[in-house]
TrEMBL record:
Signal peptide limits: none
Gene3D superfamilies: PucR C-terminal helix-turn-helix domain
Domain of life: Bacteria
Pfam family, one: HTH_30
Domain PucR C-terminal helix-turn-helix positions: 241-294
Record's protein name: Helix-turn-helix domain-containing protein
Amino acid sequence: MDNFKILLKEMCEKTNLYCKLTNNKGDAIFNNLKVDSKTIIKKIRINNIIYRLYITEENENLKDFIEFTLNKFMEKSNTIQLLLQGEKSWNNFKNTILEKRGKLFIIDCNNKEEVFKILRNSYADEDVLIEEVFNQIILIGDLDEEKEHGLSLRESIIQNTGEKVYISVSNLDGTYNGLLKGYRKAKQAIDTGKALKIVPETYISSEMEIENIIHNLKNEYSKQLKDEYEEICKSLNNELILTIEEILRCNFSLTQASKNLYIHRNTLIYRVEKIKKETGYDIRNFKEATYLYVLYINSKRID
């Protein structure tokens, strides 16, 4: 609902308008009313959700205008894009959610109109900002458990739209430079995840550094690595290839990999020894495992 705060703040400053907007529970979304103001309460509908508008008697005739403006703003709000492009001042966002520490989610999907509805209904009573930025949707808010939140959000969108969706998450520190950095990192994470076909399609920017490096390798070197990985796979049967890839997906956790492969841990260790014998790489060695991970992820890169 921070979208409303930003617009109403600008509107009130430029027109000397005084009002208060709350949700149906009475939680204030925006309020610049003077303490002794005499107000009347009007119900307004924004994006099919009912809100209460407290407005002074002399401004009662502005109710329809405010309702119309907020709905239009929700349809095509691009204040964050203008801010990222340097075309809007950071001062316009004083005392908004952008000045707080939080998370920035980028949602990449085709059916943006439907996804907007899902997000606005899901976060109707939360202090979040939802906008379209450079043909993608961003969600900004103080949202906990970023990985779980992203996975849950992605699942909800898929269930409601039936379409593929990619989500990335980064941290915000409440500053303008932090917003620029957070957006850049989230954008880089989603671009890398899509290019390398990483699943599940929910990417935490702080966990994507190696993948970002791989994504930005020169094509010639990338091809060399692909050829090397192909040679390694030639010396292994399908069972051992699946074993390598599952261990890598599990961040080298043999316990988790054995569970995912439905085999005993001792069986997995036997396979690891066999992989070492056939390829010369010991996946239990950090450097060798990291190099194998680079080869594996690079093999999925689309040049």
